[in-house]
Specification:
mainly alpha; Growth Hormone, Chain: A; single chain
Length: 581
């Protein structure tokens, strides 16, 4: 088995397309509502009852634009090929500079309502125009096994971009600089130059030809007409887990200030810590997807998230003080360290890491389902359901919270708020998402069972990483593999070789030091040259042996998994035959 290195530099350069997305949206979501409310207050008066509603309507325009435009552009991108540019870059070349221009206008004319609204609409349309094509560059350039890692790199770049956008715009706005938004626009143009220099698309597949013309409504309708029924189930699973996360994102600041009684800065620190956490652990989350498969990674992420969320949900309904301590790891109120602190740390880390594993691998599941000719189309499906959840869920949750708030007041529970049900709502969304993923996994396994030959069936499941659920702990933590003699012997052999090479290098270095004392400055003897060359050769040998060890280990793991899966299949067959009898 030939193990190739993951092309980090190449994917990092391609990720600058995603960098432009997070760079602008992070500042947009913070400052544009403030600009809009100022303008509406100036026109309608400070006490107008519809200002918040008007701001909310404008702020969901980006989701509406994405739902309408992205499926159309995704299909168009899959059917496009321009020599020297490819199928994705033409859309990026048009959309990105225009988005940068409109983003700059937002900052320059934030006090003139009609120009602000035109700039907001233009920015939303242009961002939706190039998002599916630029995100499709990653699956176009990577095989299936590497896509989870690619998504991990994307998330690291996206996290850095979000922090950069917020810090840059916040700093310049404080100084009343006219360049507050234009600075991000210039960075976007710099990212476009990097993409133009680094992206070389290959026409490896024929462009899909179809008599059917593309239009906005047919593009959306086609989402529900795909032959793979599991695609729709996965998309709805993405809808529900995004619905839960969007509600947390929308209401966490109010929850922190109104329910937990934190000040605004503490709420901001909690959110900032989550962003920093996602930057640090995005790559390990991507590696999990590569190891066990993207769908299994989503399953593990959902299970981990729910395990961490259930105690948090129970605590949120019973003791607000405990929840305050949990979310701040006992650092907010004395005593600052208790026996509960490690438990809280475990729950918070499990929650954050599980979400990363889920969110990073969700889009990879869609990429892996996509035929080669429809990568951008399937990417657009992912974002349609993502943005649908972002539109529907906050309004639905807000209505539920308000209704329960009225119910509590009518029953004399004035100390309770509908917002206290936030974690309950998130937990329900995640459980529904988990059920859908399990259903998809069972359907895919059922489809593979049509293969009658046991060896072919097992090889297909291994190749597609459709492992049984019981195999996941073994793949993640090595349970059931540590006692395998072949693996233990291979590891011992590798350690012996490594120890021998290190000892030889240490001996040669000692001899080198003695030789250097005997040689004048600038005069390198032949013995010295030979010693240096021997050290280089030994280090090179160590690298070769390490690569050989990795290849042999992977071959052994595949063989062990194959044998274990054959036993698993045989046991299932025996159980089914016993049931029939």
């Amino acid at each position: 088995m030939n193990l190739q290195r993951f092309p980090y530099i190449r994917i990092l350069l391609v990720s600058f397309g995603y960098f432009t997305n997070n760079l602008t949206w992070s500042a947009y979501n913070v400052f544009v509502p403030f600009f809009l409310s100022q303008n509406f207050k100036a026109i309608l008066g400070e006490d107008s009852a519809i200002i918040n509603t008007l701001v909310a309507i404008v702020m969901i325009l980006d989701n509406i634009a994405s739902i309408i435009i992205q499926p159309y552009i995704g299909q168009l991108s899959d059917r496009t090929w321009i020599p020297k540019l490819g199928r994705r870059m033409p859309f990026v070349i048009i959309g990105l500079p225009l988005a940068a221009f409109f983003f700059g206008l937002i900052g320059s004319f934030h006090s003139v309502l009609w120009i602000l609204l035109v700039a907001i609409c233009g920015f939303n349309i242009c961002m939706a125009f190039y998002k599916s094509p630029v995100m499709s560059l990653i699956p176009d350039m990577l095989p299936q096994d590497y896509r989870s890692q690619g998504s991990g790199v994307l998330n690291v770049v996206g996290g850095v971009a979000s922090i950069t956008g917020l810090v840059l715009v916040s700093t310049l706005i404080k100084r009343n600089s006219p360049l507050s938004f234009w600075a991000s626009s210039f960075i976007m143009l710099g990212c476009l130059v990097i993409l133009l220099l680094s992206v070389r698309e290959k026409k490896e597949i024929e462009i899909e030809k179809s008599e059917e013309k593309i239009n906005f409504f047919k593009a959306i309708k086609n989402t529900f007409k795909e032959s793979d029924r599991t695609l729709l189930l996965i998309l709805f699973s993405i809808f529900f887990h995004t619905a839960g996360y969007t509600v947390a994102e929308t209401y966490i600041s109010r929850y922190a200030t109104e329910v937990l009684l934190f000040d605004e800065s503490t709420a901001g620190y909690i959110l900032a810590a989550f962003v920093a956490f996602s930057v640090i652990l995005a790559l390990p989350a991507g590696l999990i997807g590569r190891k066990i498969g993207a769908l299994n990674a989503c399953l593990v992420g959902l299970i981990g998230f729910i395990i961490a969320l259930i105690p948090i949900t129970i605590i949120s309904l019973s003791s607000i003080d405990v929840l305050r301590n949990l979310l701040t790891l006992n650092t907010y109120t004395p005593p600052y360290f208790e026996w509960t602190t490690p438990v809280y740390l475990f729950l918070v880390c499990l929650l954050g890491f599980s979400w990363l594993v889920l969110s990073i691998n969700a889009i990879v599941v869609i990429w892996n389902m996509a035929p080669k000719r429809k990568t951008a189309t399937y990417t657009s499906y992912f974002y349609v359901f993502l943005h649908l959840a972002a539109i529907i869920s906050p309004f639905l949750a807000g209505g539920i919270f308000d209704a329960f708030g009225v119910f509590f007041k009518n029953h004399g529970l004035t100390d309770r708020s509908g917002l206290e049900l936030m974690f309950v709502y998130i937990a329900i969304c995640m459980i529904v998402s988990l059920v859908l993923v399990i259903f998809v996994k069972s359907l895919r396994t059922k489809k593979l069972r049509e293969i009658k030959d046991t060896d072919e069936y097992v090889l297909r499941r291994l190749d597609e990483k459709e492992y049984p659920l019981l195999f996941l702990p073994m793949l993640l933590f090595g349970f059931g593999l540590r006692e395998e003699r072949a693996l233990m012997e291979l590891r011992r052999q590798r350690l012996r070789e490594k120890r021998r090479i290190k000892q030889e290098i240490r001996r040669l270095k000692r001899e080198l030091r003695q030789l250097k004392k005997q040689v004048l400055i600038g005069d390198i003897s032949e013995d010295l040259r030979q010693q240096l060359e021997t050290i280089r050769e030994l280090r090179l040998t160590d690298k070769v042996l390490k690569k050989e060890y990795q290849e042999k280990r992977q071959e052994l793991l595949d063989e062990i998994l194959k044998k274990k899966m054959i036993k698993h299949v045989e046991k299932q067959a025996e159980k089914e035959s016993e049931k029939e009898k």
